[in-house]
Write a structure and sequence with these properties.
Blueprint (H helix, E strand, L loop, with lengths): L2 E2 L2 E2 H12 L4 H15 L7 E5 L5 H8 L9 E3 L6 E6 L4 E7 L8 H7 L10 H11 L4 E7 L13 E3 L6 E3 L8 H5 L6
Parallel strand pairs: 3-4
Antiparallel strand pairs: 1-2, 3-5, 5-6, 6-7, 8-9
Helix pairs in contact: 2-3
Length: 190
């Protein structure tokens, strides 16, 4: 593999390390997946992304496309699957890229990593990254998809009000109280 997106393989590895903190295998393979998905999109189509895992893969999408969680063009629907879709932001037509288990035969270190058959400290990371570079798109498959309407477009927060309980601004569509005060807060009592 010579390039991932418009970057040399080495440049991409450096970007991954700078952005993610390490040369994470999920971002390396994710870069190959994003590059593949982009190549399957018609030229000139404005696309959004849907990622089926919250681990590593969203970072590859954010590094290689204009789709981010912050601008709303990247939606993460954590199905626990190492897969992503790029799709026309208006029609929902797109392509889904995934690691094909049938194509993993012979790529033992990738197989062990993907299926979590070895603890991280026992993995041969150099071999894993070498296999990912050598395998490239050969371990991936694609299929055409039609994204459901609920994922198309950008969702607006709508009207904003101050929560009567905590006093912070929140989207009124969430109800009489902000979601945090309704019990959705991730914080415990101090």
């Amino acid at each position: 593999m010579e390039t991932i997106g418009r970057y040399s393989y080495e440049q991409y590895l450096k970007m991954v390390e700078d952005f993610h903190g390490s040369q994470a295998p999920g971002l390396i393979l994710g870069g190959v997946m994003v590059d593949y998905a982009i190549s399957r999109m018609p030229p000139g189509v404005l696309f959004d992304a849907l990622c089926e895992t919250a681990a590593c893969l969203p970072d590859a999408i954010q590094l290689l496309t204009p789709c981010t969680t912050g601008n709303g063009w990247l939606k993460v629907v954590d199905l626990g699957l190492f897969a992503l879709s790029l799709y026309d932001k208006y029609t929902g037509q797109g392509v889904r890229i995934f690691v094909d288990p049938e194509k993993l035969k012979g790529w033992t270190e990738i197989f062990n990593w993907l299926y979590k058959l070895k603890p991280k400290k026992e993995q041969d990371k150099a071999l894993l990254l070498a296999q990912m570079e050598q395998a490239g798109r050969a371990i991936l498959s694609e299929r055409k998809v039609m994204i459901k309407d609920q994922y198309l477009g950008k969702t607006s927060k709508g009207a904003i009000a101050n929560c009567p309980q905590c006093g912070e601004p929140y989207p009124k569509r969430d109800g009489a109280l902000c979601l945090s005060c309704q019990g959705g807060s991730p914080y415990g009592k101090e």
